Amino acid sequence: MLSKVYLTQTDTTIGFISQDADRLTDIKQRPPHKHYIRVVDSLATLKAQARIPARHKNRLRRARKSTFILPHGASYRVIHDPKHLALISKLTWAYSTSANLSDKPYDEQWARSVADAVIEPLADKGRPSKIYKINNQSIQRIR
Questions:
Q1: How far apart are CA 143 and CA 138, in angstroms?
Q2: Alpha carbons 54 and 31: distance in angstroms, whole number
Q3: Residues 29, 102: contact at Cβ < 8 Å?
Q4: CA 34 to CA 18: how far, in whole Å?
Q5: Is the pTM of this model over 0.70?
Q6: Closest CA relative to residue 99, chosen from 34, 44, 36, 28
Q7: What gap in Å lies between CA 128 and CA 29, rounded to an integer?
Q8: Which domains does the chain have, with CATH numbers?
Q9: H or E element: which one contains 79?
């Protein structure tokens, strides 16, 4: 289960979910130095993986469809959407990325062909999450 790549409707877009960043990098033909967003099933899981600046804990708890780049450089999103949470709660955390080749538009036929499992329905491309960079003093919107 750990190295499987799932094609699924995420809380924001249709995307790939996996705990294997190298497999995602190979599939997307993405430069290996680029990081992936980690989606987690709860704030408790996030706290176990990273230190959250105290002034931003409530913001992260309440945020919906928002990704936060923490001071150490890793990015996280806490999932609240019940459909997407059903998969993430089985994994507790996973890397998440859009279901397309790097810098190319979404192609459902290609995405289905490279995924190990497809979780239906694939409803809507949707909009990507908002991204914020936070540190101990400030917050900056990136996207």
A1: 16
A2: 33
A3: yes
A4: 16
A5: yes
A6: 28
A7: 20
A8: 6-141 (3.90.870.10)
A9: none
